[in-house]
Amino acid sequence: MGETLRGRPRLGIPLERIIQAVQRHGQVMAAARELRCSDSYIHQQFKAAGLDLRRVLECHDLKELL
After folding, report:
1. 17 near 37, Cβ under 8 Å?
2. Cβ neighbours of residue 45 under 8 Å, at least 6 residues apart?
3. Residue 28 in contact with residue 22, Cβ under 8 Å?
């Protein structure tokens, strides 16, 4: 018997796309609306990558963040 999938499937939004949306809008809530995800999802992705909102907003070089 195979395993059943439980819960919601992963969104899998690339970190680069999340960073660009947050930088473009200057805030997480507007970026979350654009990406159709929750603001907590964005914060979780930042935490997993070792980033924080201040660093994302202040940095202008995307390569430096990735």
Report:
1. no
2. 13, 15, 18
3. yes
pLDDT tens digits for range 33-47: 999 999 999 999 999
Calculate Rg over the CA atoms of the chain.
Answer: 14
Q: Give the DSSP letter string of 12-65.
A: ---HHHHHHHHHHHSSHHHHHHHHTS-HHHHHHHHHHHT--HHHHHH---HHHH
The whole model's pTM is what? 0.84
Residues 6+ apart with CB under 8 A from 31: 18, 21, 22, 24, 25, 42
